[in-house]
Amino acid sequence: MNSYDFVVVGSGPAGRRAAIQAAKLGKRVLVIEKGTRVGGVSVHTGTIPSKTLRETALNLTGWRERGFYGRAYRVKQEIRAEDLRRRLLITLDHEVDVLEHQFSRNRVSQMRGTARFIDPKTLEVEKEDGEVLRVQAEAVLLAVGTRPYRPAHIPFDGTSILDSDEILEIKELPRSMVVIGAGVIGIEYATIFSALDTAVTVVEPRDTMLEFIDKEIVEDFSYQLRDRNMKLIFGQTVEKVEKEPSGRCRVTLQNGRVLTAEMVLFAAGRVGATDLLNLEACGLVADSRGRIKVDPETFQSSVPGIYAAGDVVGFPSLASTSMEQGRIAARHAVGAPSQDPPQYFPYGIYAVPEISTCGLTEEEVQQRGIPYECGIAHFRETSRGHIMGLDSGLLKMIFSMKTRRLLGVHIVGEGATELVHIGQAVLNLKGTVEYFVENTFNYPTLAEAYKIAGLDAWNRMGELKKEPQDALKVSS
Ligand SMILES: Cc1cc2nc3c(=O)[nH]c(=O)nc-3n(C[C@H](O)[C@H](O)[C@H](O)COP(=O)(O)OP(=O)(O)OC[C@H]3O[C@@H](n4cnc5c(N)ncnc54)[C@H](O)[C@@H]3O)c2cc1C
Ligand SMILES: NC(=O)c1ccc[n+]([C@@H]2O[C@H](COP(=O)([O-])OP(=O)(O)OC[C@H]3O[C@@H](n4cnc5c(N)ncnc54)[C@H](O)[C@@H]3O)[C@@H](O)[C@H]2O)c1
């Protein structure tokens, strides 16, 4: 039986970062992956495919040019599912290639197969051809991720009633679609298909969507979606999904309303992929959603030497945060020092339009009783926005009246997921409104929106009263 210092189960963002980190610290590392290719949900069914689909849809429809040429403008008149898939396959090949190369040059061993515990330090790996191997591990990281939640009452058929993995395999673009669940996945796909001119209806049991995002941003976003004829139905659960003899899908809501569409996407959350791990054998128990509880500082589970990171530990379930969690877990597992994670991380929702946010929302600031001021900029006020033909886009910053520090940055519109990092840096470095007022920004850029929003807040906050020798000292 082969033995390793560190065995990683799963090759998604958490697993890959952890494996490379441990290998760089000179450890013997093995990655076990049950999929045919490395990369995890992130590369094969999640982040990368959905973002590639979005980019392809925006390019082929000419979406970004419609501000100039009108809503009917299209780069390619008839867009087919295979047009979207072609670019997807090329992107995925590149991703897998980069990852394979990273593993090989860092001497990370790989094994294809499904891992399960025999005891806390021994794993059994069943390969696709039925061969079974055992490996011994000083420490184990469970980075097994999640899979779509598929309740029994939804008659998934893989062609027109689909989960978010299956949506990537569709043969034809639907003319109409009902999306069940207005979480991040549901909203991203709903808006991508709407950009492809599919008539989309979203059904969500809660009274609103994306509750963790600043309300003003969600309102602006919802207005834009409704303005292009997307239907958003809140406060309604789905009773039944059926297939009509004609092949159309029929969705019956709790209030008796019936929606029909060519396709249904069920996107109401994901569950941890822990069922194959035989967790009892190592002394761990997953919760009802398949998640593993860990120490938030080290990512060690209740069993010493067994770690978990990424989506399998729950919130925030992002590729970006999963990578950091994996690296922290690996460093702790091999006895290397690790820094605390930064207080604020960004959240990027790649809907059409994008939303991105970092720090406190206005609602959170109010709940904490912090006196504050907001600064707002519309992209249409920036010269770059005029050049790009943008008629929407909003950047909002929230500042403390007491310390003048930036508390939160919230953006909806083109480039939001890139722009947010300026605000994130100021936030984590404890910068104040003066940063935006006193610094020069490239012109013409969308980043100029920071300057405009900074000045907007500063005009109402009044000038900083500087002590002559103490100009830069601002209490936190
Ligand atoms: C549609 C969609 C879009 C997304 N978009 C974004 C985005 O834009 N930005 C963002 O930051 N995040 C996004 N996410 C979230 C992101 O994909 C996840 O946070 C990330 O993939 C989690 O990484 P992970 O390392 O936990 O595991 P995963 O990427 O889930 O990979 C887990 C791996 O473990 C393997 N595995 C499971 N069980 C076993 C076993 N017993 N033995 C061996 N191998 C096993 C699986 O085959 C899989 O390859 C998106 C997710 C989805 C579904
Ligand atoms: N851009 C990104 O960063 C990105 C993109 C996609 C996914 N993700 C991650 O993937 C994870 C999973 O995303 P998700 O959207 O599947 O889950 P989610 O939990 O975020 O959202 C699920 C939505 O479905 C609704 N819902 C729950 N049960 C329902 C039911 N029975 N019928 C109808 N609606 C129901 C919920 O109210 C919620 O709004 C998220 O935590 C997210 O962080 C991130």
Automatic annotation (TrEMBL):
Where is FAD annotated to bind? K51, D311
Q: GO terms for biological process? A: 2-oxoglutarate metabolic process
Q: Which organism is it from?
A: Rhizobium daejeonense
Cellular location of this protein? Answer: Cytoplasm
Domain called Pyridine nucleotide-disulphide oxidoreductase dimerisation: residue spans: 346-451
Q: What is the lineage of its organism?
A: Bacteria, Pseudomonadati, Pseudomonadota, Alphaproteobacteria, Hyphomicrobiales
According to the record, how does the cofactor bind? Binds 1 FAD per subunit.
> Which coenzymes or cofactors are required?
FAD
Concerning NCBIfam families, the annotation shows: PRK05249.1 (NF003585)
Q: Which residues bind NAD(+)?
A: G181, A182, G183, V184, I185, G186, I187, E188, E204, G269
Q: Name one GO molecular function term.
A: NAD(P)+ transhydrogenase (Si-specific) activity
Record keywords, A-Z: Cytoplasm, FAD, Flavoprotein, NAD, NADP, Nucleotide-binding, Oxidoreductase
Q: Which family does it belong to?
A: Belongs to the class-I pyridine nucleotide-disulfide oxidoreductase family.
Instruction: Kindly report the protein's main subcellular placement as a broad class.
Output: cytoplasm
Q: Which GO terms describe its cellular component?
A: cytosol
Q: Does the keyword Iron apply?
A: no
> Where does the FAD/NAD(P)-binding domain lie?
4-326
Please, which domain of life does this record's source organism belong to?
A: Bacteria
Protein name in the entry: Soluble pyridine nucleotide transhydrogenase
EC number(s) for this protein? 1.6.1.1
Chain's role: Conversion of NADPH, generated by peripheral catabolic pathways, to NADH, which can enter the respiratory chain for energy generation.
- Please report a single Pfam family linked to this protein: Pyr_redox_dim
